[in-house]
Design brief:
By secondary structure, the chain is an all-alpha fold. The protein is built from 18 helices and no strands. Helix 12 (200-225) crosses helix 14. This is Sugar ABC transporter permease.
Amino acid sequence: MSTAASTSPSPVVPHPPPADDGRAKADASRRKRKRRAKVTKRPLRERLRRDRTLLLLCVPGILYFVVFFYVPLAGNVIAFQDYQPYLGFKESPMVGWTNFQALVQEPEFWTAVKNTLEISAVQLLLYFPAPIALALFLNSLISSRSRRFLQTVVYLPHFLSWVVVVGMFQQIFGGAGTVTSYLNEHGVSVGNLMNNPDTFFLLITSQAIWKDAGWGAIIFLAAMASIDNSLYESSAIDGANWWRRIWHVTLPGIRPVIIMLLILRLGDILSVGFEQILLQRDNVGAEASEVLDTYVYFHGVVDGDWGMSTAAGLMKGVIGFALIYLANKAAHRLGEQGVYRR
């Protein structure tokens, strides 16, 4: 009995699988998918034939950007020439960096840069959050009829020209405007707000908010529509109020869109609205309203100094591109997608 018990086979203990077995299976599955993708991938000619209708629809948009954005880039050679319109690009003499040297020594140029940066800072602080706040308000409305009505109302000003918008503000806040007259009748003297250089930056920012905040809210409303409703339901069950749901659900859900638009806005920080400021430049004077766009217009088109004005425009474009690139790199370091993925 003891001998039989001693010779009985011991239980087999299974050996654990190798540590890299799961990784090997994942690699094999990945290679299999790649082989399947190569097999199912159609030739380029066949894909072009399949998508020819969509490609034809893209042609007008592509031509628009090529003709009006990429072809004019060749005109930047004027920045390095003593350009004369009757001589053209080929016959105008090259002057190297002379136009840039004269530009940085021009006091009016630095006045335009200072005004541009100050207006951009005010608009970044006041105008950029306005569409976000408006989208949060519209998204919080329960009645779909009220939401559609308010959306229509706030979208409409975008389709008005700046001539109409400035004229409306003149009728309201001008020297004989409705608001100004009402305040004067009640003993509050505010003067002509449309001619006050001290409040000019706030004036054009308020005009931009009134005109374009509703239109800018569209993309944020679209981003909010993609947020899973179960997240709101879970937070409500946990006792989160309206503000907590916005802070912990809505804003994190639209954060990639906010960062992308902020990066694009930083790249466009030296453009603050040419037509809007040109219409009101004479009211407050060039010292308070001259920006880079109006500087390029008056020195290039009006005064005929094509080389220096093109140099200013080229510097503006290079700085804007550098700001987009650096802001996108910063977004990548913070773990965000940015304008494009790494």
